[in-house]
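Running log. JK asked me to keep both predictions on one page so they can be read side by side. First protein, sequence followed by its tokens:
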Amino acid sequence: MIFRIAILELVMSCLAAGIAQAEDWPTYRHDNRRSAVTQEKANVPLSLSWVRRSPVSPLMAWSGPAKWDAYSGNKDLQSMRNFDPAFFVTASEGAIYFGSSVDNAVHCLNARTGMERWVTFTGGAVRLPPTIDQGKAYFGSDDGYAYCIDLKEGRELWKFRAAKSARLIPSNGKLISPWPVRSGVLVKGSNAYFAASLLPWEHSYLCSLNKDTGTAIYVSDNTNMTMQGALLSSSTTIYAPQGRSVPLLFDASSGKSLKGVSGMGGTFCLLTEDELLVGIPQNQKASGNVIQIADPSGTEAMLQFHGADRLLIVGEMAFIHQGKVLKSLNRAEYGRLQTKIVTLTGQVKGMTGELGRLRKSFNVLPAAKKQSEGKSAKTKILQLEGLMKASRVEISTLSKAVTKCFGWEIRSPAPYELIFAGGVLFIGGNGIVIAYDAGTGEELWSGNVEGHAYGLVFSRGRLFVSTSRGHIYSFSEK
């Protein structure tokens, strides 16, 4: 009951904050934390407004996962570099924008009608959507450049190439730079950040530019990096996913490399409001998926959710899909309890070892000394046994409390994307988009699409869906 009240309070607090007002979705997954959370209230049901159909599916940078990892003995692998399976969109003030890996361009569409307003071409694939900021769009291309264009006509304002060389190499039937910009462009304050990176034996560049002029603040030259996938940022730190390698951390003001979180990988990453990093393990196991939450200042995951396909965090709440089930979770309380369980389990393990040593020492004592020294040893053994019993009882009690951290639970298709819009959860599945009430788990609406719905955006009363077929759908409030 307490948990359900917490969910309802979350939804009501959003409503009280003015959720009903229209809101833009100006960058990939809404914000620089890639939260996929908007405060705009989604009023469902929705109806199909228009569809932009692509004659060609997205031409992904990487064709798919390896079928077998002989080194670690894993099979049935997922792609660790699945950052461009659809034409993801951003939305601002009545227009939507997307980059294309097919025609190497950025497109602007009228959000209401789907009619194209303008298109701007580059010399390579544009794999992530442009970031919209103060009348300008920022994006990167496989040609090695980061671009800034105006929103009115798509006119180029500046472009910047980190590498000095204009060399091109063949890749999937196209010519690309050995230093493609596949990180998108992250705008933070007066700066625009991007990474130009591909192969660990080539140089990689993390760049910070003046967003208005395109002049370099710094260009950090690095090696042994493969920065690909959307950059993230906290208040002071830039995070760069790498796919099969761990995400990299950089000081935003200087570009200096920082110590990162070990064990993570993939290009699905997000930061919580309290600046915890959510991602997947670096090494995949055939037993299933794992999503984990870690403190970037530490070295190990704080929480792990085995069998999870997708996780979304809204304040203290989390929404997780595991197996065939979508469920809600009070992650703050869950984390507190799990941390205590781990601590107590470690203490019991230590006491078990100490108890074994004490018993062994007592058993080898000569009979003459068992009367004098044995009494003290027996006392210690009894004390340890008592502490261990109490700790195990507490662990059992905490474990029961953990189950109460979960709220509603419903059967749901596996999501390729999961977003939150003012109390409504939208999941993108295979051929379908479904809306659920975040407070109760009740299904509110569903709509059909062609392909896997990898991209979801809710802005100004419209849901935009990008699929693996290259199609973009617009659903609007009735």
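And the second, directly underneath as requested:
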Amino acid sequence: MNLKKKLFENFNLYAVTLCDGPSPDILSQVDKAYRGGAGIVQLRTSGFTDRELIRLGLKIRQVSRHHGKGFVVNNRVDIALAVDADGVHIGQNDAPVDFVRECIQKYGSLMLIGKSTHSLEQAEAAQEEGVDYIGVGPIFATPTKPDYSPVGLELIHQVKRKMHIPFVAIGGIHELNMDQVIEAGASAIAVVRAIFSAPDAFLAAKTLREKYDKLRLNYV
């Protein structure tokens, strides 16, 4: 299957890991997230050596392929290439898009590029840079991005009207407020704590995905 088609067929519930260091539970949680209904898992970590990150990334790649779902690595294009991920996701202060694309092309990869944006101007700039999708947020306040003020639901409306590439809303989204996000125009939502801080990642992902599917039927 075409890589872009594969990734965007699964562009619905996008789960971002919450890893502050190596743990035997990480791989199990990722597997549960996929089984519960997450279409994409992004590996976002801190406190890992490169060797540990590659080892974990290779294992997640195997799990993602077993489930036929997408796998994205945050920030590190070198790690993403090493583990043959489906995509790499960069932030506003990470490596420039042109550099990331050059690295990908140099190794003959078809890996996709996503970029975080926090305003309409940043979203439009990312689109001009030729990224494959953007993240929009944080929609609500979230401890995972304490230095960023919430952008609110209005930015979803603006991006929906202006952009012609896929986008995923992220930041403080959970079961009790995701209806506002979908109603505002987001066709994909990203969550961190709502899955990876839950007592049962499978049940959390399943609950979110079932609600997501119902909401999309109402608002599409």
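Observation for JK regarding the second prediction: The chain has ten helices and eight strands.
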